[in-house]
Amino acid sequence: MALASLLILLTAAGYALLCAVKPFAPCRKCSGIGVRTRRHTVTLCRRCHGHRARLRIGRRLLNNSRSIHAAGTRPHATDRKATPWQ
């Protein structure tokens, strides 16, 4: 049981490190080419919009959690109380 938990923890840590070092992965839909061929037409990939790479799911979760934390903990410029000397 401890070995399985350690393996899961190491896998999650490895994926988190991968997301930090290399946040973009090749698009799976177009295989990183950026275009798709349908019958006789060539169109941009709908998933990556022709950029050939997509943000990894783990990196998207990290960015989302950072923005939620920043929105909840940092005071905004409009939230400050006005002091008489300003």
What does this structure look like?
With 86 residues, the protein is of the alpha+beta class. 43% of the residues lie in helices and 16% in strands. The mean pLDDT is 84. Strand 2 and strand 3 form a beta hairpin. 7% of the residues are buried. The N and C termini lie far apart (61 Å). The strands form two sheets. The chain has a two-stranded antiparallel sheet.
Could you write a compact summary of the structure shown?
This protein is of the alpha+beta class. It has helices spanning 2-21, 57-73, and strands at 24-26, 35-38, 41-44, 53-55. The strands form two sheets. The chain has a two-stranded antiparallel ribbon with strand order 1-4.
The assigned structural class equals alpha+beta
The major pleated sheet works out as: 2 strands, antiparallel
Mean pLDDT: 84
Give the low-confidence spans.
none
**SS summary, helix count:** 2
* Percent range for β-strand residues: 15-25%
Overall outline: flat
State the total count of DSSP E strands: 4
CA-to-CA gap between the ends?
Answer: 61 Å
- Estimated helix fraction: 40-55%
Order of H and E elements: HEEEEH
Give, in spatial order, the strands making up the sheet with the most strands: 1-4
Q: Which radius of gyration do the C-alpha atoms yield?
A: 21 Å
